[in-house]
Model the fold of this input.
Amino acid sequence: MGLKQSTSKAAAKPREAAAPSGSQTLLRGLDVLEAAAGGVIGLADLAERLELTRSTAHRLASVLVERRYLAFAPREGYTLGPKLLELGFSARQQMNIIRIAAPHLEALSVATEDTVHLGVQEGALALYLDKIPGRRRVEIGSRVGERQPLTTTGLGKALILDESEERWHELFMADLGARATENAFRIWLKRMRAYARDGHAFDLEENEDRIRCVSAPIREAGGRIAASISVSSAAQYMSDSRMEQLAKEVKATTAAISRELGWRGDPPRA
Amino acid sequence: MGLKQSTSKAAAKPREAAAPSGSQTLLRGLDVLEAAAGGVIGLADLAERLELTRSTAHRLASVLVERRYLAFAPREGYTLGPKLLELGFSARQQMNIIRIAAPHLEALSVATEDTVHLGVQEGALALYLDKIPGRRRVEIGSRVGERQPLTTTGLGKALILDESEERWHELFMADLGARATENAFRIWLKRMRAYARDGHAFDLEENEDRIRCVSAPIREAGGRIAASISVSSAAQYMSDSRMEQLAKEVKATTAAISRELGWRGDPPRA
DNA sequence: TGCAGAATTTCATATTATGGGATATAATTT
DNA sequence: AAATTATATCCCATAATATGAAATTCTGCA
Done:
């Protein structure tokens, strides 16, 4: 089969370090798919960006077109195809938190006019499951399917509200990396204690500049935090007093969703 | 590489006839993905359904898990992963008709309490791009990303309203296949002429039993039909008089969307 | 009409996917 | 607790399949 890639196995790829063994063809096919997620891309660019020959890129892309994962416009390039609409839809269906939460998120977005997110914890990160854009002309730089740190986002903080302070420390250090000082942690910890007490969290331009948000956890039957939601907007729309007001609305929404998930009880679990 | 599949190339697969040449690994990977779209599936079932060995199924699935296309719960099985949420979202973004139409479809669904669909023509079929479920307890058996015949669905008929009668004949015969008689066509044609005149179409339990729907075309800048929408419900909610009333609402909605697509003009193009 | 860039096909080569089986891990029963 | 099952993961020789250079066919544009 290939001739070139044998050398570039261990080090060359700036991707995740893993995967020395695997299915090259499948991996490359997925690379092609993801390259097209960024927008229309021609065969030449595709081949270059992925360091494939034109033949290989063409062959992989053709298979994906045949299976409707990509769409191809002759002198234009490749775009994501309808199969991904279908699978995306199915993926949503399979996560019933999304289904249950969706109408509540909609309502909250309409009421606040701001962008609403839904997320869950995946490993040591917050995974964005849904996003309802607000009416305001503010672009929130988040994408469904993406992951963000737990300790520096509103969504993330709400997800770890029940964790121990030791765990908080671990996560904080892991997220901040070299930039983490013990002093920074103490300040953060003080805020987190208040958030945990109040059952909601804020994000004050920590993760994204000029963006503030208000978040709260969703609890499932046993009281465990299963997900969280947040309302985000530009700092100019997010005065301290409005954030306090929003906290109530967000908590009313998470309470309604939690109830649908079978949780009956008061914020702090006994 | 493989040993078994060499014989089963031409005939064995009841899939689409094509693809004698291709990237087996990629194709199989996509098969795995689609098998998981049906719901949780264990490794054993997966291997059996796709006629793969456990090793191969495991290897492919592991790659898909690593890339987050699948999620794996140890004693449970594989489900669609968050990457598909992301790509599904991106695919929607790339089709700007979906973006533009979405709020209008929402509003129509709320107003009518019924299921609203958006679709475009893809080849000789209608492709479902979006679906907003209604409030009523009626399950409409359609899935986003799926394709249905043009001549027997409301969505489809609205898409071909501008076609010639010759083309209608071709499509009708192709869709109905062996069941198509010239007499059946004459009856259908008579209705289609009325639909084309009125700028909307009905579907009277032709495609799905006990489901009726009202549809209308969306036109882009040049007047060409770019998409269509439909309102569907159980026949019991769809009296003839209500359908006439709905036709007005649906057309008001398509007019609004068409205007956003840059089309200024009256229903029949000059 | 002819050109240039893009799309597609061909084909010999050996790299990489394959699958049988062996091994490890975890649930379930005796 | 030990035995039993079912499931998950790993290993490796084999050759089938993916590969890429180049040739060929398209297609839009000047």
In short: Chain B is about 45% helix and 20% strand. The CA atoms of residues 86 and 239 of chain B lie 41 Å apart. Residues 1-5, 21, 24-25, 52-56, 59, 74-75 of chain B lie near DNA strand C (CB under 10 Å from a C1'). The mean pLDDT of chain B is 87.
